[in-house]
Every structure is written in structure tokens, then in C-alpha cells.
Amino acid sequence: MDEVEPDLATAVRRADLIVVAVPMDAMVSVLPPVLDATAAHQVVIDVGSTKQALLAALAEHPNRGRFVAVHPMAGTEHSGPEAAVSGLFEGKTVVLCDAAHSDPDALRMVEDLFHALPMRLLYLDAADHDLHTAYVSHISHITSFALALTVLEKEKEEQRIFDLASGGFESTVRLAKSSPATWVPIFRQNRLNVLDVLDEHLHQLQHLRELLAREDYEGLTEQIQQANHIRKILP
Amino acid sequence: MDEVEPDLATAVRRADLIVVAVPMDAMVSVLPPVLDATAAHQVVIDVGSTKQALLAALAEHPNRGRFVAVHPMAGTEHSGPEAAVSGLFEGKTVVLCDAAHSDPDALRMVEDLFHALPMRLLYLDAADHDLHTAYVSHISHITSFALALTVLEKEKEEQRIFDLASGGFESTVRLAKSSPATWVPIFRQNRLNVLDVLDEHLHQLQHLRELLAREDYEGLTEQIQQANHIRKILP
């Protein structure tokens, strides 16, 4: 027990629903004392980007049933209360993980909350969640950090970046403004999945590089046509 | 002379300003006959993404002075007339290349046009233009095409991509919807600059990969803090 605990317990006692939104390394240590202080009528959710490590850490907790693991697939590159955006979650997907491990009444309260926003509810187990978010979210952050580092390294004239940055550059580099306090713990907890998709990404980039290096413009056209297939999924 | 020429000449004759907006491989063959048909009071501009090959092809043209090479740094991933966006150029940068090779009255007409939109005018020589656009625009398209190929390869369940794609993924993959007819000629004409920045990007990605593989989270934090520096340039 450290001296923060009494305040935490007091804060928890007043709430019907406790939302824990902290970086994933802190999440693993903050959630157990929050669940310790949770009574039978209360519900706790996280809103974190990785689930396996967290749910393993909570598996034996006596109040595990009061916890519902959720991941709303929406956010911005900004952090802190001043980064709040009205309507951020509307129409977006929220993933509920290992829902069978939550008490039915706790799950129902959380489902009602997200239906009301409204969000689209998707049920995945923790392993599937971490795999698919590595593919569709975490790798985007790696590529954006690397793109920012690339341009900052090559383009020594910062005014040129400002002058020439079009909407295309801004959108690919936007995620590179994201905080290391948020993202390093995510990469750490989802390390093997992130390495796996990052290796595929390096392979695809190397392939495009080879086609351009050997002036295989038909091959390059075919690869771009294949990449254009993303239009059918995200119009 | 092929049979298209008379129509081209007729169309050119009616205009004060002729804007040629075609892929860069076509640009190099379309602009000479357009300039052939251009009278002393008329002005021709392109709006293309590469300049060195084009300006080399036009260097000896007797009407070179009537041509002003411009590159508005704005656009979308969509092509064709139905992709027009009102206000697209407002407040953006337009690059004017090798402006000293244009007749003063032709240059003035084009400056007046872009000031009126209004756009910010930036003067570069063709070599600098191609170098800096490789850094700030062309590499973004390569990374986005590679990201789309990566996710399409790893994520066999297309519905999962649709369900889990957040704003972050959508913004990094948006440029991957761009047409190969537009982009292969750009990569071809700016091949050495694009290869150079692509090699730096591969190096940065490999470095992030190594830090994660050997669990050097301090090193990863430092790299992300360095990438965050892009905030100061593009707030």
C-alpha cells in the first residue's frame, strides 16, 4: 500500500463506471488496485491498445468479472485532456476483448454505453485483437515515425519542409507527432506481432526499391495497382 | 504531324493561358506541340510534380519563354475531372521553376494568377525542386503504397481492415489509392532522388526494428522524441 491508495479507493467508490486511460505500462500496475477497490455493483474499463499482457495480469484477480476490456478504434496524435475531440467515437468501431470473462451485467452496461454513442461493437479474443491492431494500427505509427525521421534527416532546411508539405505529406507524417509515453509501451507489449508486420513492410519497401532501381516500370505499375486495392476496403 | 495536331492548335489558339495537366511521361511529349502552336501573347503552364526532365526537353524550344513551369503543392489521391475540389489551392504553396527562363510578361501573368487564389509563391531551380519534392512528397507515396501492400498481404480478412481501420491508419494509407498512371512517371523522372531518400527511409525503419528486436526501449523513446520534432515544423 502506498500513500496514493486511499485517494484512489475514495475516487473509485463514487463512480458507477471507472474508465482507466493511461499508457499501457502504467495500465498493468494501475488496474489491479482499482479492481481491489471495486464493489460488486461497479464496472471498470480500460481503453488501451494492447490486451494480452493486461488480461494475463488480471486473470486471477477476484474482481476480474467487474472488468471489461475495450479498445475504441479512434483517437488523434495529441495527448492530454486539452486534446479532447467532440464526437470522436461516433460511428467508429470499439473492440470488446474476452467478453465472456466479464460478468454479464458489467458487459451489458458497457455495451449499452457504446451502443448509445453510437459505436460499432466488435468482439475479439485478446490474441486476435493484438494481432489485428498490429496490422491495422501499430504498423502505421512505425512507418510514420520512420518517415518523419527520414525527412528530418534528409531535409536539413526546415523552412523547405514547411513550404513544400502538401496534404499528402502531412497525412502520412501526422502520427509521428504521437507521444513515446503512449507508443513505446504498446510496441513493447505487442512486440512480436509488430516485428512480424514490420518485417513484411520492410520486404514490400525493398521490393518497390528493387523495381525502381532496375527500372522495371511495369512491375512498379503492377505493385501500385495491387496497393490501390485498399480503395475497395476503405473507399 | 499526326491528325490530332490541328485540333490541338485550334484549342490552343482560343486561350490566353493554356494549362497542361497530364501524367509526366505524356507531359514531355504533349508540351512541345502545344508550344509550337503558342503565339507571342499566350502563356503555357504545366502543373506537374517533376521538372528536370521536362525543362531539359523544352530547353531549345523557340517558344520556351512563353512557358512557365509550376507545381502547386496540393492535390488528392483521386484523379480525373470528377475529383475536382473547390478551394484546393487556397493558402498552399506553388513552386515556380527556373523562372528566369520565362518571358517577364508570361511570368507576371502566372504570378498574378497564383497570388489571386491566393497561393504562396516559391521560386526554385528545377534540380532543387526535384530534390525537395522527393523528400517531402514522393517518399510519402512510396511509404503509403508499401503500407497498403503490407496490410493487404498480412491481413487476409478484409472485413477486419474495414472494422479496425482508425483515422490514423486511413491517413497513412490514403495516398496508396493514387493512380500508377500519375506516379510511375514521377518516380521514373525523379528516380535517383527517390532512391536516395528511400534508402534513408529503409535505414530508419531498420533502426527502429533493431531497437524493438533487442528491447532497447530507451533508444526507441529517443527516436520517437526525435520524430516528434516534426511538430515544430508542421504544428
TrEMBL record, chains A, B:
The UniProt record lists the keyword Nucleotidyltransferase: no
The Prephenate/arogenate dehydrogenase domain, residue ranges: 1-235
Keyword Oxidoreductase: yes
Keywords on record: Oxidoreductase
InterPro entries documented for this protein: 6-PGluconate_DH-like_C_sf, NAD(P)-bd_dom_sf, PDH_C, PDH_N, Preph/Arog_dehydrog, Prephen_DH
Protein name from the UniProt record: Prephenate dehydrogenase/arogenate dehydrogenase family protein
Organism: Hymenobacter humi
Lineage: Bacteria, Pseudomonadati, Bacteroidota, Cytophagia, Cytophagales
